[in-house]
């Protein structure tokens, strides 16, 4: 569904040069929820931004749904993001002037595409927002806002959804709701999701966890639990102590 | 705190510039007006001190009424006074002022003139201190003239050429024998005859309006005045040459005062509009920097310090705007001088920047900016530090309901004031008219935020239908802060309210003129003599043309009579009755032949006059004339005054050189061949160069053209308020884009293309512009309709709503919106998505 090969991203020049990605290759399969973990500065966000066509790698290739994105112009990249990729950011996910419903259908509206009514209804029911559709974002709680964002990410049936710390700003109950929703969309709809997180409990919802450090993939964990994730984190980052 | 202020300005220098620009334009207008005033002053002081050079004492007849050109009509003094004056021991010489209008015919056969500037002639004196002979010799006899060098150049003639000069009814074949230098003349043309010819032309009855007296060296002007007064008849007065120069300059200043008033009105408009933008900008700047300000508060800055910091920025903006505005004002003055020159008024006073101009400009920029910034600054200081430190702070927004209530109250008050103002007649209700207009403006300005939602919903509908999500988001953005949108749109609102009011009035005026001419004027041809009018003899020449039944000349006679207008029209009964449909309410037209006067119905009503009433006062140069009302006529714009006096009285009241008809109506014999007679009339007036012959349609068109010209001038000036409006929208949009960086990043991430983003910002701008335009058009329409009702008595009988121009104005506003969006949109599309998303 999505593949990265030898991704390198270098910021700055000379002494100030930073190798954010030092050759990352990975593959994300259909119907799989992958968590990406790593300490600050490990390159996990840069990796996700390059995968999601928000940033261009210095070298290497990214393929989304069979499309090689290297060399695509802004217009084509925009269209790719609109039609093939869904996004959930940590915060500020919604357009404040639009209602929840309008926010959800935004990618389709922008594309001028027709709404698949059945699909839409199913998503609304899954995120449980039916009663709140006519509200503006400012009238929704943080958890509800993230659920709207998740629904928006799914509505255009993207090939892949990227979630950047989707639960970073939420309390534990709201986090649990979002994570279970992501899980269900993988299980029930066969959605492919890549999620960047630093919380082991969030990563435990994934099918697989990739660990990044210093711009490289340093480990992979299948069928993770919170405990095994913590163990791995400690192994890859000696500085990180488990309290 | 100073360091923080400076850092603030450096950090937002673009906004700083934009805000300064809005101050700049207002100040530029004021500075330009002041510079132009000083320059005109210098021009005329120069001209008059040149003209009065060598005049130590100026002797003139008793002062009469003030003529249209601002000069006073005076009773004549006998020419024999010259000898008496010269007999005085300290008088070196005395000379009668033999001056009048003389039109030089240029090489191409047309009149040599600069727009409305005078065409002057006076007599040649040997050793005249006023003149310097460039070339040639003194003119002798009626066949020779000297011409001022600038006039000569404009005529395309040189010394030795033969041409014609039109003085009143006389067309004289002359030879140019000299070229003289006078100095600056402000466009006036100047021709000189020898003294006997001048006496013939300008003092045929042996009297003159004034004498110029030069004293012996060492005699003070004041002492000379004392001596001169001993020989003067009681109706004459003597003043010093210096006093004369001052008086002339003051008169001219007053006559040109309307230019200043006109410009200052626009300066006021641009300052008010600029003020709106400043309030707006500072509100936004502060909203955006709430966290920064709160941080300052949290680390111990007092509320007062925060206010002072913001005000310090305002001072900087005001000073920069004031300074640059001053410079721009000098440029504006130069442009206005060029414009005046094209109207025939050559301004030779340079571009003097006086201390007053500098002080007024800087103070104005400063005061307007600081006052406008004070409100948002105080509001900012009231935010609790801890509230501001939180994530998504918004400036506290009061509900719009209270505003809507206030606006409604003002509107009702305005409407309540409209009713009596409509009923009031005559000129006494000027103040209440202004009050009504101001109330309507206030209601719209206060109510605009509450109107933003419904109006933008309507104007946005077609665009929203075209592109659903983009249109909807643009509308949402425009409505996100209705106050801000309203303040931004207000600049356009004010400008367009004035434009539409003016266009309603001018369309109504054009239509009214047409129907008035059709209803009231029976004449077949209309003669017009331009600014100088037509002298006696021209009308006589036309009367002699075969096929012409009668000619009714309308002669302007200045009055200073209690309860009477400033100008009366002199005419004779039979010709007037032929040419104009005069409806008599009481009495008959024939009373004019008995020496009685006619008054209009509204004048009769206002002053409580009726047949038999008497008036007394100054009529032209007659110091105490008695007038008896012989009839009352229905108000009639074709007559052009509310009082008609007998032609004979007009003749006595106005000295021969100043006698002129503004307009003459020509009626043809029934059954005459109109085309043939017209050709003969054209031939008859041809020698007089400046007289135009128009049939009714041409006359109507000429009147409309005048209105159009006035309109164009107003449009050009209003264009400046549109420029300010564009700046305001650019400013607001730029800030909005900045504030919404994260949102724009998000939209781009989820797939909004650059062109869609551009469209979204453009639409927001267009909505704002159209909102202002719609409000302005409605307001202007209301004011226009109201003023037309008020002015029905002044001849504005027909109401015309120029739908075409209003639609054009709306379309232009949409274009204004598109133009204003260009820069902010470019900026938005250049945003790096990743950086935008992660911005704080």
Give an overview in words.
The complex is a heterodimer of chains A (243) and B (840). Chain A has 243 residues and is an alpha/beta fold. Chain A has one domain (29-57, 73-236): Rossmann fold (3-Layer(aba) Sandwich), CATH 3.40.50. Chain A is built from 9 helices and 10 strands. In chain A, helix 5 (117-127) runs antiparallel to helix 6 (142-155). Chain B is 57% helix and 17% strand. In chain B, the strands form 5 sheets. In chain B, strands 6, 7, 8, 9, 10, 11, 12 and 13 form an 8-stranded mixed beta sheet that branches. In chain B, strands 18-19-24-21-23-22 form a 6-stranded mixed barrel. Chain B is globular. The model of chain B is unreliable at 391-396 (pLDDT under 50). The interface between A and B is medium-sized, with 28 and 24 residues.
Structure keywords:
heterodimer; A: alpha/beta; four-stranded antiparallel sheet; B: 840 residues; Barwin-like endoglucanases; eight-stranded mixed sheet; six-stranded mixed beta barrel; 26 strands; 57% helix
């Amino acid at each position: 569904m999505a593949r990265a090969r030898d991704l390198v991203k270098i910021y700055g020049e000379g002494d100030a040069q930073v190798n954010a990605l030092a050759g990352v290759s990975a593959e994300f399969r259909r119907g799989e929820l992958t968590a990406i973990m790593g300490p600050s500065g490990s390159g996990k966000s840069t990796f996700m931004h390059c995968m999601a066509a928000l940033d261009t790698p210095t070298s290497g290739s990214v393929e989304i749904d069979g499309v090689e994105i290297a060399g695509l112009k802004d217009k084509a990249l925009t269209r790719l993001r609109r039609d093939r990729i869904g996004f959930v950011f940590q915060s500020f996910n919604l357009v404040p002037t639009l209602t929840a419903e309008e926010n959800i259908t935004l990618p389709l509206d922008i594309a001028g595409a027709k709404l698949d009514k059945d699909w839409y209804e199913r998503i609304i029911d899954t995120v449980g927002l039916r009663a709140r559709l006519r509200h503006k974002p400012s009238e929704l709680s943080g958890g509800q806002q993230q659920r709207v964002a998740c629904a928006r990410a799914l509505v255009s049936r993207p090939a892949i959804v990227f979630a950047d710390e989707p639960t970073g700003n939420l309390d534990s109950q709201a986090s649990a709701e979002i994570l279970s929703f992501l899980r269900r969309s993988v299980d029930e709809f066969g959605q492919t999701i890549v999620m960047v997180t630093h919380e082991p409990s969030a990563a435990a919802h994934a099918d697989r966890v990739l660990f990044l450090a210093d711009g490289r993939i340093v480990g992979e964990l299948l069928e993770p639990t919170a405990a095994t994730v913590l163990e791995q984190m400690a192994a890859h980052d000696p500085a990180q102590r488990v309290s | 705190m100073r360091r923080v202020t400076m850092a603030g300005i450096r950090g937002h220098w673009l906004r700083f510039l934009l805000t300064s620009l809005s101050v700049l334009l207002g100040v530029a207008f004021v500075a330009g007006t002041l510079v132009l005033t000083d320059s005109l002053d210098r021009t005329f002081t120069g001209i008059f001190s040149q003209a009065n050079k060598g005049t130590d004492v100026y002797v003139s007849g008793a002062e009469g009424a003030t003529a249209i050109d601002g000069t006073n009509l005076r009773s004549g003094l006998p020419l024999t006074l010259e000898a008496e004056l010269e007999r005085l021991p300290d008088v070196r010489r005395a000379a009668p002022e033999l001056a009048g209008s003389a039109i030089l015919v240029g090489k191409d056969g047309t009149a040599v003139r600069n727009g409305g500037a005078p065409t002057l002639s006076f007599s040649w004196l040997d050793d005249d201190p006023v003149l310097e002979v460039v070339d040639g010799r003194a003119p002798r006899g009626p066949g020779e003239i000297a011409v001022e060098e600038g006039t000569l150049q404009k005529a395309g003639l040189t010394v030795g050429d033969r041409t014609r000069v039109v003085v009143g009814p006389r067309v004289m074949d002359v030879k140019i024998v000299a070229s003289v230098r006078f100095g600056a003349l402000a466009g006036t043309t100047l021709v000189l005859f020898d003294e006997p010819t001048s006496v013939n032309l300008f003092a045929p009855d042996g009297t003159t309006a004034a004498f110029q007296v030069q004293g012996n060296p060492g005699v003070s002007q004041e002492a000379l005045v004392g001596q001169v007064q001993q020989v003067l008849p009681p109706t004459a007065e003597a003043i010093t040459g210096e006093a004369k120069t001052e008086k002339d300059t003051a008169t001219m200043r007053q006559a040109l005062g309307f230019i200043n008033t006109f410009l200052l009105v626009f300066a006021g408009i641009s300052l008010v509009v600029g003020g709106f933008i400043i309030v707006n900008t500072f509100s936004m700047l502060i909203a955006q920097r709430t966290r920064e300000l709160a941080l300052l508060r949290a680390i111990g800055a007092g509320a007062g310090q925060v206010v002072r910091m913001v005000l310090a920025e305002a001072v900087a903006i005001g000073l920069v705007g004031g300074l640059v505005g001053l410079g721009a004002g000098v440029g504006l003055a130069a442009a206005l001088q060029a414009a005046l020159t094209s109207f025939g008024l050559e301004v030779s006073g340079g571009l003097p920047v006086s201390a007053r101009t500098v002080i007024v400009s800087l103070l104005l920029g400063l005061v307007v900016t600081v006052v406008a910034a004070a409100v948002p600054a105080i509001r900012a200081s009231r935010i609790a530090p801890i509230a501001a430190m939180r994530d998504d702070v918004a400036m506290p927004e009061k509900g719009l309901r209270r505003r809507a209530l206030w606006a409604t109250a003002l509107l009702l008050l305005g409407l309540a004031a409209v009713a009596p103002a409509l009923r009031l007649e005559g000129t006494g209700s000027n103040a209440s008219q202004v009050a009504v207009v101001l109330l309507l403006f206030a209601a719209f300005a206060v109510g605009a935020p509450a109107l933003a939602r419904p109006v933008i919903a309507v104007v946005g509908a077609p665009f929203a239908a075209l592109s659903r999500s983009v249109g909807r988001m643009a509308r949402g953005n425009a409505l996100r802060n209705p106050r801000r949108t309203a303040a931004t749109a207000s600049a356009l609102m004010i400008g367009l309210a004035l434009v539409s009011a003016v266009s309603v009035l001018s369309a109504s005026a054009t239509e009214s003129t047409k129907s008035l001419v059709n209803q009231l004027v029976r004449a077949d041809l209309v003669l017009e003599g331009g600014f100088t009018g037509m002298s006696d003899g021209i009308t006589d020449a036309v009367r002699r043309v075969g096929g012409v039944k009668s000619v009714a000349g309308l002669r302007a006679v200045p009055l200073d009579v209690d309860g009477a207008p400033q100008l009366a029209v002199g005419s004779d009964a039979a010709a007037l009755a032929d040419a104009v449909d005069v409806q008599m309410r009481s009495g008959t037209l024939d009373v004019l032949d008995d020496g009685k006067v006619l008054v209009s119905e509204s004048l009769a009503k206002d002053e409580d006059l009726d047949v038999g009433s008497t008036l007394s006062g100054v009529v032209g140069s007659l110091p105490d004339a008695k007038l008896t009302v012989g009839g009352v006529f229905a108000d009639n714009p074709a007559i052009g005054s509310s009082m008609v006096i007998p032609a004979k009285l007009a003749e006595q009241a106005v000295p021969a050189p100043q006698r002129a008809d503004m307009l003459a109506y020509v009626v043809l014999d029934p059954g005459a061949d109109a085309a043939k007679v017209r050709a003969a009339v054209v031939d008859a007036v041809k020698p007089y160069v400046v007289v135009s012959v128009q049939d009714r349609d041409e006359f109507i068109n000429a009147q409309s053209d005048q209105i159009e010209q006035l309109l164009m001038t107003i449009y050009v000036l209003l264009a400046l308020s549109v420029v300010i409006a564009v700046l305001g929208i650019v400013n607001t949009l730029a800030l909005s884009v900045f504030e919404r960086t994260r949102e724009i990043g998000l939209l781009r991430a989820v797939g909004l293309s650059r062109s869609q983003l551009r469209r979204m910002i453009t639409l927001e701008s267009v909505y704002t512009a159209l909102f202002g335009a719609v409000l302005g058009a409605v307001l202007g329409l209301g004011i226009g309709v109201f003023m037309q009702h008020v002015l029905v008595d002044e001849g504005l009988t027909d109401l015309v709503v120029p739908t075409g121009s209003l639609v054009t104005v709306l379309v232009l506003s949409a274009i204004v919106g598109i133009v204003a969006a260009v820069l902010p949109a470019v900026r938005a599309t250049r945003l790096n998505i990743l950086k935008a998303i992660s911005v704080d």
